[in-house]
Design brief:
With 145 residues, this protein is an alpha/beta fold. It has a single domain, classed as Rossmann fold (3-Layer(aba) Sandwich). The protein has 5 helices and 7 strands. It has a 7-stranded mixed sheet, sandwiched between helices.
């Protein structure tokens, strides 16, 4: 399985799935987070995990792959239309979207569903009790046509 991870931070989710993937690519803008992610991959012996520094929309077209799974964990602003369009063109079998903003999640899901996918699972996770913030993990799969 090839997995592509966008907005990878220090690599937590990327390294979590690295044990069951052939190749993992994480993309993160923050250079210090990328440095930490690379260090975390080395410390855990994952040589098949690569972290790229820069904007997702700039790095995605450079990757020569057709991922089986895409995991997205964008900031509150969500995912840009250009990134969603690129991911839809690559036709992964599954997209996992981790969102910290229900409004941008709904906006982005609308575009993804129109692109030939369907939502198979939505799981809210209350990581910030007594606040209005909630994380939502959504599993999206390619429609059988």
């Amino acid at each position: 399985m090839t997995e592509l991870r966008t907005d990878s931070g220090v690599g937590t989710l990327s390294l979590l799935v690295a044990g069951c993937a052939h190749d993992v690519y994480g993309i993160e803008e923050n250079p210090l987070a990328v440095e930490d992610a690379r260090r975390n991959a080395d410390l855990n012996g994952f040589r098949h995990v690569q972290f790229l520094q820069g904007k997702v929309e700039d790095n995605l077209p450079r990757l020569p792959l057709r991922p089986d799974v895409v995991i997205m964990d964008p900031p509150r602003a969500g995912v840009t239309a250009a990134v969603i369009d690129h991911i839809l063109r690559s036709r992964p079998g599954k997209i996992i979207y981790v969102s910290c903003d229900p409004a941008t999640l709904a906006r982005d899901l609308s575009r993804i569903v129109r692109g030939g996918y369907q939502v198979s699972l939505v799981q809210p996770v209350d990581m910030f009790p007594w606040t209005r913030h909630v994380e939502t993990v959504t599993c999206i799969v390619k429609k059988n046509r």
